[in-house]
Amino acid sequence: MHNLLIEKVETLCKKRGIKLTNQRKTVLNIMLKANRAMSAYDLLDLLKVSEPQAKPPTIYRALEFLLEQGFIHKVESTNCYIICPHFHEPQHISILFICDNCHQIIEKHSENIESQLKLLATQSEFLIKHSVLEIHGICHSCQP
Ligand SMILES: [Zn+2]
Ligand SMILES: [Zn+2]
Q: What tens digit of pLDDT does each residue of 7-38 get?
């Protein structure tokens, strides 16, 4: 699943005419392996294993690229990053269920919510660039 995803990302990059450098690929790999939301500093620590000279700007540049391409989402409320499993549809509205106990994040989509938001935006003559809905609570395995 892991390698398949990287392959898909590589194909998409080729199609878009952009370069997935080794460093960007390494960051993506770290996130895939961890399979959880990570802060830039968590990522930097793990990147340093293979690239000891890596500095905060290194990681922020890689994250910026991955965000721009829609491969990851930024979780503003926890200041973390997660892989987007639906990155081939870059225009989607992402609904994140964030567990306040174990910090697991589940990403969901909803055509209904999407069309409602688009309607509200149109009514307000607002142009949506990107949207992430962050919803906090307790996940299934953390519920008593
Ligand atoms: Zn997404
Ligand atoms: Zn939980």
A: 889 999 999 999 999 999 999 999 998 888 99
